[in-house]
Amino acid sequence: MGQLEHFIAPDIKYQQLYQDILTKNPLSAGAALWEVGQTLTQAGLQLEAELKEIFIQTQQVNQDWAEGRFRVLREGEGKQLLDGMVVDEEGRAVIRPWSSFADYTRGDDLPPTLGEMRNLITAQGRLLFPVTPSRDSFLFWLYSDQASVLQLLVEERLDQGLETKPYAIEPSIAQAMPDMVMTVSIKRGKVGIGKFAQKGMVLGIVGFWEHTHSDLSEGRGYIGKVRVEASKLTEHIELSPLEKREVILSGGLPMDEKHNVTVLRMDPQIARRDLIAAAFQKFTGESKHPLVLRFNAYRPWLGEFPKHG
User: Fold this and answer.
1) Which of 82, 106, 131 is the last residue of a domain?
2) What's the Cα-to-Cα distance from 144 to each of 175, 180, 234, 286, 290, rounded to whole Å?
3) Are residues 265 and 293 in the same domain?
4) Which string of DSSP letters, residue by residue, matches 267-279?
5) Quick one: CA torsion of 33, 38, 42, 45, rounded to 10 degrees?
6) Which of 11, 49, 92, 143 is deepest in the core (most CB within 10 A)?
7) Is residue 308 domain-resident?
8) What is the number of alpha carbons within 13 Å of residue 149 lying toward its C-beta?
9) What pTM did the predictor assign?
10) Is the pLDDT score of 204 beyond 80?
């Protein structure tokens, strides 16, 4: 129960950690400027490697604390998809809680990378820790499919302490929806495509890709997408917020011309405002199978961030 009450930081301090690294990378007297630069670069890389391990271990130790803290933050701020923050050694937030889904949708105030965490820690001279809730995988489904989804979660023993809630959609968009959308957060990696297919449901993976064509991403640099992997119920399908004409005019090549994949194009106006809603609105009109969407929180400090596509 102690982990529910307070944040547990590692025993090591930043000054000790960095001093140990410098000891392993000594500078000889009269070293040339390039040698100094090389040594400091090596020390910086070692610091990043050490910090990554510290972040992983600290997250594991504080799973229950983090889950409880994010539950309070989501309710208090009225933001359902909060999934990350940076805290100090006492568990105080030093970078506002964020939603990686919302941040990559906007394309700004992105979650910190490992290098950015190193720079922040070095500047403040103390250890700081990026943390996520223990349940950092979000599921979405239409209310009409709720019984099937909950049955699967019960069978997979994922139902303990789960709180299913309506997913907030703008009223103007909600009018175009086939049904109310529900959501719940679970631990990642616990249920996949095959399990949903056994229950007659299709799983769509929500994510983003980095795009170099600013006219496509409207200067944001990231474009949302939904990937439906092939299963016994369906072929590989990509749900895109881009019109084929947009892609061609930007100098790109449409995905269905590059790969053997079916592309369903979502309503771009809805998709820019709410990718989740746009995916349900499009897929429901194209398939007889119920759709469940999954979004896993991005953790850039562990190398998890949208890649170029």
Assistant:
1) 131
2) 16, 8, 20, 17, 9
3) yes
4) -HHHHHH-HHHHH
5) 100
6) 143
7) no
8) 25
9) 0.90
10) yes
